[in-house]
Each structure stands twice: as structure tokens, then as C-alpha cells.
Design goal:
14 helices, Alpha-D-Glucose-1,6-Bisphosphate, Chain A, domain 3, single chain, globular, about 25% strand, TATA-Binding Protein, about 35% helix, seven-stranded mixed beta sheet, 3 domains, alpha/beta
């Protein structure tokens, strides 16, 4: 019996091509997905990795072999696939390994309307079906057709954010040789934006830098170009272009928490009193600002399946994560960095202040960013940290997702175990950099022994 435990993750399938992931396995995954979701059709897209077209074709063969049709949208960003799933009201499969190195690939799956498929919502069933052998379908095969949805995607995004009357902006975009190079030109076409492109050539070997803007090393080229050309802002997309990172005119990064607060305020202006979702690692400034603008902040665990579930339950209009995933009710509750980027440019272009000044009101605290520690005993180290703070006066502890500890002075930290690696992930926030450093060092001293 096959063992897929190494590649079926919490939210997707991901592995090294040729070693963990091949066309035979992907064909069976396609067949299992077709049996899970039923007909009439599945929409399939893929990124620019060398292995993606072949894997997408094999997946489509598995789907059609179960009597279900496939609509291929070809090259796509992940949010373009979500758009297709929402617009066509069909389940979808996106072939990408996001920001992982070139030898990896994977599959992000969703039900009709871009509803997520994770371990608890279908992935475990797919894994079990493939491990035990997908039943053969003896009926008529499904058909394969092609449909280009890039124009519809771009037009739809532009109906959600009006940039037609903003002042002219110069914007550098670093696509990292990923799918932003495919989607950005179409989305920005006709807008009052002078686009300065960087690494728009689709190349799954990532010749310039990893397509992972979460790593500061991968923002260096963008920061330099923004300063060189005197741009108003810079945008960096990850490999499958579902996440977007922002830098200001000086090249300084604007935190995803700040972007979350800014977009939340814009969405609340359209729908006063609305609910905004934020995960527990976003800055305290997010719920504060949401409340000040008449909204209702709702805190949730990290991860897109939790965000999307909470959005559905609460009717939330928007949600943001510390990792630069941004979710919109009007985009089928799916995450789209492109729509968040358009909101930032609209906010910038509707007034005369530079981005650094515009975002100053949304940035209230200092933060450490995510710090990873390799540990042998995740549970033991977590327990040691909990014990160190549990009895202190005025300390509040919750375990919604890992361990969150809030101190009497308002500073806080979250410590979470990685699902896939022997890591503990630490995030710290406090009133200033000195306080962040002191709390960070105190916690790491316990974590790292």
C-alpha cells in the first residue's frame, strides 16, 4: 500500500518531483478528487514550473477517467484558479509549489466556489482512496476543454477597486519569475500606473532569487529598484502570486499587519459595521483599528482553511494574515494578493501623502517577525515556556493556536509548533524594538535551552 503521509500536508499536496510526486501518482490523485467532488467538471490551472504542465495533464486524465469533465485554464496564479472556481461554480486544482524551490511541485484543491479542501475537508479522504487504490470507473470518460480566463479575472478585480481617478503612480513589481509576470500586466493594463517590471519572465528555475518575499533577502532587488527609479511603491509576489508584499518609496517593507489594517478600513468604509478576520499573529493594532472604525474584529488560528471557515460563519467582509495572505468575501472568501495590492495603490493614489506617511497611522507597535528554532521536543519546550509565565501576575495565556502569552504591559508573544518540521515558531510584539528584543531573548533562552 502506498504511503502518502510525506506529501499530503494540512492544506495541500506537496513534494519533490520524480521522487515523491510523479505523473502516475498525480493521475490517481485526480481520479480520487473526481470521486470526492463528483461532476460535472473540474477546473485545472498550473504555474510556470517545468513539471507543472505534465502533472496537470496527468491529473486531468485521472479526472476524466472517472467520467468528470475538465476545463483547463492553463497558466494561472493561484488566485486566478480560485476566480475560475468561483465564477464557474466548479471544484478546482492548482498545480504549484508556491515559494518552494524548483524541484518541488504540488496541488492546491478547492470545491466549487473556491471553498478550501484541507485535511478535515477532503484531503484525508483523497489520501486514503489513493493509498488503497482508486476504484476503476467503467462509464464514459469525461471531456477536456480549454478556457482562458485571465481577461475575466483582471476585469473582475477592477470592478472591486476603482483606480481610474487616482493620481499617476510609479510602481515597481518584482514577480520573482513567478506567475505575477503573467497576471500583473493584464490587471494593470489601462490603469494610471507606470509599471516598472522586474523578473516578469516565467521561469520555474527562479534564476534571480527565490520567489519567497517573506525572506528579506528576496526583497533586496525590489528595494534597490524602487529607490533607483523614484517609485511611489514596490510590490513583490510569491511564486504562485497569491501573496503580495509591499515596500514604500524608501524601500522599507510595510508589514502585512499594516496592510491588513489599511484594507480593513477601506472595506469598512464600504460596509460599516462589518466583520474583519485576523489571525492571532497579526499586530494588536489590527483589532484596535477595526474597532475604532466601527467594525467587529474576530481572531482566528493561522491557516487559510481556518480563516475561510470563520469568514463563512461570521459573514466577514475581509480577513488578513501575518504571512501576507488577504481574503475577500467578494472574491469567494479566497486569498488574493493582487486585490490587496490594488487596494494599497488606490489608497495611495487617492491622496497626496507618500506611502510611509499614509501607513503610519496603521503601525503602532514593534514586532520581531517569525523566528524559527529547531528543537527535539516541541511539546516539552512549549510546556517549559508556559510554566515560566503561567504564575506571573497579570499574565494572560491562551492556547487557541500554540501558546499565546500577553504580559501586563501589553507586549505578547505566540509560540507555535510546525506541522511538518521539528521547529517552534516565535512571534513577539511590544511597544518598541528594545522591549521586543528583551522578550524575544527571554523566550528563546527557554526554547533553545
Amino acid at each position: 500500500m502506498r504511503d502518502l503521509s510525506g506529501i499530503v500536508k494540512a492544506y495541500d499536496v506537496r513534494g519533490v518531483v520524480g521522487k515523491e510526486l510523479d505523473t502516475d501518482l498525480v493521475r490517481d490523485l485526480g481520479a480520487a478528487f473526481a470521486r470526492l467532488v463528483g461532476g460535472p467538471a473540474v477546473v485545472v490551472g498550473h504555474d510556470m514550473r517545468e513539471s507543472s504542465p505534465g502533472l496537470a495533464t496527468a491529473f486531468a486524465e485521472g479526472v476524466t477517467g472517472q467520467g468528470v469533465d475538465v476545463i483547463s485554464i492553463g497558466l494561472a496564479s493561484t488566485d486566478l484558479l480560485y476566480f475560475a472556481s468561483g465564477r464557474l461554480e466548479l471544484p478546482g486544482a492548482m498545480f504549484t509549489a508556491s515559494h518552494n524551490p524548483a524541484q518541488y511541485n504540488g496541488i492546491k484543491l478547492c470545491r466549487a466556489g473556491a471553498a478550501p479542501v484541507g485535511q478535515d475537508s477532503g484531503l484525508a479522504e483523497i489520501r486514503e482512496m489513493v493509498e488503497q487504490g482508486v476504484p476503476e470507473f467503467l462509464g464514459q470518460r469525461g471531456t477536456l476543454s480549454e478556457r482562458d480566463m485571465l481577461d475575466e479575472y483582471a476585469a473582475y478585480l477592477r470592478t472591486l477597486v476603482d483606480l481610474t481617478h487616482i493620481r499617476p503612480l510609479r510602481v515597481v513589481v518584482d514577480a520573482g519569475n513567478g506567475m505575477g509576470g503573467h497576471t500583473v500586466p493584464k490587471v494593470f493594463d489601462g490603469l494610471p500606473v507606470e509599471l516598472v517590471p522586474m523578473y516578469f519572465e516565467l521561469d520555474g528555475t527562479f534564476p534571480n532569487h527565490e520567489a519567497n518575499p517573506l525572506d528579506p533577502a528576496n526583497l533586496v532587488d525590489l528595494q534597490a529598484k524602487v529607490r533607483e527609479v523614484g517609485a511611489d511603491a514596490g510590490l513583490a509576489f510569491d511564486g504562485d502570486a497569491d501573496r503580495c508584499f509591499v515596500v514604500d518609496a524608501a524601500g522599507d517593507p510595510v508589514s502585512p499587519s499594516t496592510i491588513t489594517a489599511l484594507v480593513a478600513v477601506r472595506e469598512l468604509a464600504k460596509e460599516p459595521g462589518g466583520t474583519i478576520i485576523h489571525n492571532l499573529i497579526t499586530s494588536k493594532s489590527v483589532p484596535e483599528i477595526v474597532t475604532e472604525h466601527g467594525g467587529r474584529p474576530v481572531r482566528t488560528r493561522v491557516g487559510h482553511s481556518f480563516i475561510k471557515q470563520k469568514m463563512a460563519e461570521s459573514g466577514a467582509i475581509f480577513g488578513g494574515e501575518h504571512s501576507a495572505h488577504y481574503y475577500f468575501r467578494d472574491f469567494w472568501r479566497a486569498d488574493t494578493g493582487m486585490l490587496a495590492a490594488l487596494h494599497v495603490l488606490a489608497a495611495l493614489g487617492e491622496q497626496d501623502k507618500p506611502l510611509a506617511e499614509l501607513t503610519r497611522d496603521y503601525t503602532r507597535y514593534a514586532a520581531s517577525g517569525e523566528i524559527n528554532s529547531t528543537v527535539d521536543d516541541q511539546a516539552g519546550r512549549m510546556a517549559a515556556v508556559r510554566a515560566a509565565y503561567a504564575d506571573a501576575d497579570g499574565v494572560r495565556i491562551d492556547e487557541l493556536d500554540g501558546l499565546t502569552v500577553e504580559l501586563p504591559d501589553g507586549s505578547w508573544f505566540n509560540l507555535r509548533a510546525s506541522n511538518t518540521e521539528p521547529l517552534l515558531r516565535l512571534n513577539v510584539e511590544a511597544k518598541d524594538a528594545e522591549a521586543v528584543a528583551a522578550l524575544r531573548d527571554a523566550v528563546l533562552a527557554i526554547v533553545r535551552g
